[in-house]
Amino acid sequence: MGEKKRKQADGTSLKSADDGQKSTSVGRRSTVSVAVGASCIENAQNLELGTLLAGQIARACAIFNVDEVIVLDDGPSGGPDTVSAAAALLARVLQFMETPQYLRKALIPMHPDLRYAGMLPPLDAPHHMRATEWSAYREGVVRENGAAGGGSFIDVGLEKDAYVTRQLKKGARVTLCLGDEADVLWMDGWEVYKGTLVSPSDPREKKGQYWGYLTRIAPNLKALFEECPFKCGYDLTVGTSERGEQTTSCSLELTPFKHGLIVFGGPQGLEYCLQNDPWKERHSEPSPFFKRYLNTCHDQGSRTIRTEEAILISMAFLQPALHKAAS
């Protein structure tokens, strides 16, 4: 079949981004979150290798349609309201990788932690669209407000800005619905696309289209569970450990869930995380904090499995059960 194309007002064509993306007519309301122990970054010998490791984690999460990535600051606490260097590096690289390339200059400030981030392979996620692609949804950044305080001009990575009738804060990241066909307007002397401000979850909930992940830092297990961004919290929690329950992927059954959370420790596992956690008085080992505590690679041929490897192995292992249990 030929490529679908959208005509711009000047007659040039934009290829439909839907041609190369997997979306369904039925939306997906369930979410999957992944928490990763930041101590895996401390194991890296230098900044370049730490950045590469963080990039591998970002790509693994995007491959498996993860909607939220939590950096679990699992090392010894440096005091209240402090974040370890490893957690800060991992979070910065995760945010850098998730941000569409055309928005990075406006949204990601320069920082020494991002010195090597530009060398990482891109996520190439559905919301990372090229200037030659058209999609009903697009990420953008507020460039400026309209004349006389009316509306906002949004940079969406196309030749023309998009325009919304609401006045928004300059520099804010937003998700717009531009429609299946371009609707071109003249506004303040500029040719713009008509856009509608929507929730970042709209592409997932209405079209089943993966739309990147949120990033947050949790200083401990308490914050990991209690600061969940979803109203009803996580109703499925899975911990991963070599000391966990052994089962096969095809026989694994999970309880129905709306918001699932899978937690990965650092090189020393979730046991190390609990040693440095305020909740260590509750239980002597991590398994009681989770509905399921699984060993997803019990036939391993290496004495150790690195965190970035564990994410790929475990998410592939859990994928059939997660799809079946998602509600």
Largest sheet: 7 strands, mixed
Number of helices: 8
Strand order of the largest sheet: 10-11-8-7-6-9-12
pLDDT average, as an integer? 90
Quickly give the structural class.
alpha/beta
The amount of beta strand, in percent, is 15-25%
String of helices and strands: EEEHHEHHEEEEEEEEHEHEEHEH
Shape: globular
Number of strands: 16
pLDDT < 50 stretches: 1-6
Walk me through the structure.
With 327 residues, the chain is α/β, with parallel strands linked by helices. The chain has helices at 39-42, 47-63, 85-98, 104-107, 202-207, 221-226, 269-275, 307-325; strands at 5-7, 13-16, 31-37, 68-72, 133-134, 137-145, 152-155, 162-164, 173-177, 184-187, 190-194, 196-198, 214-218, 236-246, 259-264, 292-295. The relative contact order is 0.17.
Quick tags:
327 residues, alpha/beta, 7-stranded mixed beta sheet, 6-stranded parallel beta sheet, 8 helices, disordered N terminus
Question: What can be said about this structure in brief?
Answer:
The protein is of the alpha/beta class and 327 residues long. The protein has eight helices and 16 strands.
Which helices and strands, and how do they pair?
Layout: E1 5-7, E2 13-16, E3 31-37, H1 39-42, H2 47-63, E4 68-72, H3 85-98, H4 104-107, E5 133-134, E6 137-145, E7 152-155, E8 162-164, E9 173-177, E10 184-187, E11 190-194, E12 196-198, H5 202-207, E13 214-218, H6 221-226, E14 236-246, E15 259-264, H7 269-275, E16 292-295, H8 307-325
Parallel strand pairs: 2-5, 3-4, 3-15, 4-13, 8-11, 14-15, 14-16
Antiparallel strand pairs: 1-2, 6-7, 6-9, 7-8, 9-12, 10-11
Helix pairs in contact: 2-3, 2-8
